Amino acid sequence: MSIETENQRATRKSLARYALPLIPLAIFLGFAAVAGKMLYDQDVNGRDVSAIPSALIGKKAPSLALPPLEGSNTAALTTAAIAGKLTLVNVFASWCVPCRQEHPILKELANDSRLTIVGINYKDRNDNALRFLGELGNPYKAIGIDPNGKAAIDWGVYGIPESYLVAPDGTILYKRVGPFDARSLAQDLLPAIEKAVAGR
């Protein structure tokens, strides 16, 4: 083997030694660029970054056949439980801090006669979920437990809380990633409800 080839091999090893540590840095910079663009869009362009588009909007909602939350005195969450009703499907858990923040809004929405609110209790312990509802109140007409997250995968959940407005015919009309607040309620959900009701 020639000396030149040995030199080339040594050069390659040297470059690899310096390049490998740069890979995590490159990945981090990529994530930072995406996060920076999202913040820029939100602050400068006024874009709501929580309004992540969903491939399910305009399509039939996935079927529901979830067991009830034992001890909640609330019906199990099934497709039959929401059929024929304008429904807000809310994915929540007791360990989710933003779920706690949005809960008063759900309690308020539960008084809207145009709307039925149901919950998917995501990867939670039964006793913790009951304590959560006991402390904050129960806005749900039906609750289904999703201990392994399968239903959440079917619904395309990114992270919780997450909510879907489902038409009486089962079509998904609107999706919200993250907690509702006064702004998203006034600017997004209530107009979507009014549009759905007007379209009946």
What layout of secondary structure does this protein have?
Layout lengths: L2 H17 L2 H22 L21 E2 L10 E2 H4 L4 E6 L4 H13 L6 E7 L3 H11 L5 E5 L3 H6 L6 E5 L5 E6 L4 H17 L2
Parallel strand pairs: 3-4, 4-5
Antiparallel strand pairs: 1-2, 3-6, 6-7
Write up what this structure looks like.
This protein is α/β, with parallel strands linked by helices. Helices cover 45% and strands 16% of the residues. The chain contains seven helices and seven strands; from the N terminus they run H-H-E-E-H-E-H-E-H-E-H-E-E-H. It has helices spanning 3-19, 22-43, 79-82, 97-109, 126-136, 150-155, 182-198; strands spanning 65-66, 77-78, 87-92, 116-122, 142-146, 162-166, 172-177. A five-stranded mixed beta sheet has the order 5-4-3-6-7. Strands 1-2 form a two-stranded antiparallel ribbon. The longest helix has 22 residues, at 22-43. It is elongated and about 80 Å long. The chain starts with a helix and ends with a helix.
Features:
200 residues; alpha/beta; two-stranded antiparallel sheet; 7 helices; 16% strand; elongated
Q: For the record, give the distance between the C-alpha atoms at the N and C termini, rounded to a whole number.
A: 81 Å
Strand tally is 7
| Major sheet strand order | 5-4-3-6-7
Rough shape?
Answer: elongated
Mean pLDDT: 85
SSE topology string: HHEEHEHEHEHEEH
Describe, in short, the structure shown.
The chain is an alpha/beta fold. The chain has seven helices and seven strands; from the N terminus they run ααββαβαβαβαββα.
